[in-house]
Write a structure and sequence with these properties.
Helix content: 25-40%
Distance between the termini: 76 Å
Structural class: alpha+beta
Number of strands: 12
Shape: elongated
Amino acid sequence: STQRGRFAIVILTIYILLLSLLILLFFWRCVISVDNVSVTLNSESTSITQVRLTTTELQLLDSDSHLHFTIPLISVTAIEVHQPIFGTNYIDVDYTNSGGQQTKAVLTFNGGRATEFAQTFFRITEGSLETGNEPLQHTAPQIHKTISSEPTNDKKNQ
């Protein structure tokens, strides 16, 4: 009877340690997460409201925090940050989809943090974001980066 109790405690302790390790590994990969983001994929609006950048991919989540879509960072070919004077900051992400076609995702940061997100995105895709003293174990793609702060031609925002 006491041996069963001790065995149950040992099993429970091991289970808690393994669960803690899995949670730690998941959150270690997540570098930045931003809420209140509108995402357009191939000129089509989506139900995505959160973007999460990990060391290997861009994760797009819906309003219930369910994973909707991922973009592997190795497939990113260009990142362009737009900072219009009369409008919300947004980022164009060009990437190659699994079918080999060039695709675009537009991330509109309705709640701010676009600049912080873009700087982190640039560092990760360049492979220069460090964990401790060692660079990430991710092969960075060669990408074209652009930051623009030109006035927008959108008459709705004027």
